[in-house]
Specification:
Layout: E1 7-10, E2 13-14, E3 26-30, E4 33-38, E5 52-55, E6 61-64, E7 66-71, H1 73-81, E8 83-84, H2 91-104, E9 111-116, H3 129-135, E10 141-145, E11 150-153, H4 155-160, E12 173-177, E13 183-189, H5 192-199, H6 204-220, E14 223-229, H7 240-248, E15 255-259, H8 266-275, E16 281-283, E17 285-289, H9 319-331, E18 335-340, H10 343-360, E19 368-371, H11 377-386, E20 389-392, H12 407-411, H13 414-418, H14 423-428, E21 433-435, H15 446-455, H16 475-481, H17 484-489, E22 507-510, H18 519-522, E23 527-532, E24 535-539
Parallel strand pairs: 1-5, 2-6, 7-14, 8-9, 9-10, 14-15, 15-16, 17-18, 18-19, 19-20, 20-21
Antiparallel strand pairs: 1-3, 3-4, 6-22, 10-11, 11-13, 12-13, 22-23, 23-24
Helix pairs in contact: 1-6, 9-10, 10-11
Bound molecules: zinc ion.
């Protein structure tokens, strides 16, 4: 490209991408792309009468926008619109907060809340309808737990959803019951689907509000691309047409790469892909849950739980059917994303991918295992040889402030502890590692993710030196996983992820130089500006 720039940013410190020279003074932008970069003396040829030149402090870091590789967009918007119960220390306190919130939304048909966690309550016991009914009984209440794999309902909600003594739990789900057999209010995994199907079907205007909410939050944190996982409560939450409409109205200031359910009709998705394939919104991959989560003993393990020796966890789907769908998707060249928290789940998922590759060879699909919270060395090697991406959310390492209260510690045996969030081992083996947040399960603040990956510390500063300190990585590697590698995951490494001439001008300006500061300061980083296609979509006030 040649000619004059529309916009030039100069004097900041640049991080163009891992391994690229940062010895530049400016970056010029035109028509949404990077026109050129260089030393100050080379800048003159880009400056025309219309060029806006912005000078920023040398302390500021100019870098590619973040790619959040694991998000549930509509659910994230829904959570930010309802009540957060994460700070409640007991069942009673949680109910009081729900009641107070319900009073502020008298016209809403449902009362939604999230982030309660009995694990942190004094009694550590799952809650029931009995207590919540004492606080809110006139309207249905639907409250999801911190890891999103349990829902707590009041009796009104149970009634509306038709969940009675006679309701059988669907496969891969559980309906908790009182001794007399009546449902006690909590639903696990696929049983949540029964209630969510009624509680979480939103009209278009509401869903649009939720998506807008998340776009704003993402741009605020310097996120310019994300992978949106639609399957949540047994159905795909996120209407493609709403994204398309937002794009047409110029409101989609994010590149959304969406993943419908792997268990849908793949040919139908492939034909839909033709319709939804713009630079801002496209269908890129398919998602499935292979297992659940540690806290509920539903993550699938290779060895029994350290704190529940009779259990290996339970799968979240029919594993034979999963194998067929993985092979079909692979054969048709579409990438898959597989939720695997336990080492047993990822081991099986890799068996399926291996078999698909043996049958059909490489087809251009870029598959990923999501979460990968613990693993075995053999599977790290298999990821490298099969080209499977490790999609990790470093913030999951410290979902709660105090390290000693971490739910993983009790569930993992010594071997699994050693291989928990083995980020460096993956990288050293040549596996592509991408980072994401899993918002709304944890905040989508990428600086928290970077901080965890670099320090492996909880908010209480423990354990000293970090959890499995040998797995700490450099800030350059962490940034790479949050930018270029994310773009690679969706096949867009040629146009996104670094600040190189010709690439799309998605970049951010930070208030500090992440490459120079103390790791402790990473957490407080502020985004000053976010650009997508060379246009500023967020500026700090
Ligand atoms: Zn998720």
């Amino acid at each position: 490209m040649s000619g004059k720039a529309e916009y030039i940013i100069k004097s900041g410190t640049f991080f163009r991408g891992k391994g690229l020279s940062n010895d530049i003074d400016f970056m010029a932008v035109r028509s949404g792309r990077i026109l050129g970069t260089g030393k100050e003396k080379e800048m003159e040829r880009y400056v025309g009468s219309e060029t806006e030149v912005e000078t920023v402090s040398p302390d500021c870091l100019v870098m590619p926008g973040f790619h959040d590789s694991h998000v549930h967009t509509v659910v994230a918007g829904m959570y930010s619109a309802c009540v957060n119960l994460g700070d409640c220390g007991s069942e009673e306190e949680t109910c009081k907060k729900v009641k107070k919130y319900a009073e502020t939304i008298p016209d809403e048909p449902w009362v939604h809340g999230y982030n309660w966690y009995h694990v942190f309550w004094e009694n550590k016991v799952l809650p029931t309808t009995r207590i919540i009914d004492r606080y809110v009984s006139d309207r249905p209440v639907f409250l999801t737990s911190a890891e999103g794999h349990t829902a707590w309902l009041n009796s009104r909600a149970m009634e509306l959803c038709g969940i009675t003594k006679d309701t059988e739990a669907p496969p891969y789900g559980k309906i908790f019951k009182f001794d007399d057999g009546t449902p006690s209010g909590c639903l696990d995994d696929r049983a949540i689907d029964i209630a969510a199907n009624i509680a979480c079907r939103f009209p278009e205007s509401v869903e649009m509000k939720f998506i807008r909410e998340h776009i704003k939050k993402a741009n605020y944190y310097g996120i310019t691309s994300l992978n949106d996982f639609l399957p949540f409560y047994g159905f795909d939450i996120g209407n493609h047409d709403i994204f398309k409409k937002l794009h047409e109205r110029g409101e989609l200031s994010l590149r959304v790469h969406c993943a419908p359910n792997l268990f849908s009709d793949i040919d139908e998705i492939l034909s839909r892909r033709e319709k939804y394939n713009s630079d801002r919104f496209r269908i890129c991959m398919l998602k499935a849950f292979v297992d659940g989560v540690w806290a509920m003993h539903t993550a699938l393990m290779l060895e029994p739980y350290a704190n529940k020796p009779d259990s290996f966890g339970i799968p979240a789907c029919d594993l034979d059917r999963l194998k067929e769908k993985i092979e079909e998707a692979h054969r048709k060249g579409i990438s898959i994303r597989l939720h695997c928290c336990g080492d047993g789940a990822s081991h099986y998922a890799l068996d399926c991918i291996e078999s698909a590759v043996e049958k059909y060879g490489q087809t251009g699909a870029r598959h990923a295992i999501e979460h990968f919270e613990t693993t075995i060395p053999e599977d790290i090697r298999r990821c490298a040889s099969l080209g499977v991406i490790a999609s990790i959310q470093p913030s999951h390492m410290a979902m709660i402030d105090a390290f000693d209260a971490s739910t993983y510690l009790g569930a993992f045996n010594e071997r699994q502890k050693k291989m928990a969030w083995a980020i460096k081992s993956f990288m050293e083996a040549g596996v592509t590692v991408v980072f994401g947040s899993d918002c709304p399960i944890v905040s989508n603040d990428p600086f928290l993710g970077l901080y965890r990956a670099v320090t492996r510390l909880h908010n209480d500063g423990k354990p000293e030196g970090g959890y499995n300190p040998e797995q700490r990585i450099s800030i350059e590697d962490a940034l790479d996983a949050y930018t270029l590698k994310g773009a690679f995951g969706v096949g867009r490494e040629d146009e996104l992820g670094t600040l190189e001439t010709g690439k799309l001008a998605d970049f951010i300006v930070l208030d500090r130089n992440l490459l120079k500061i103390d790791a402790e300061e990473i957490r407080g980083t502020k985004v000053l500006k976010t650009f997508i296609d060379g246009k500023c979509v967020y500026a700090a006030s």
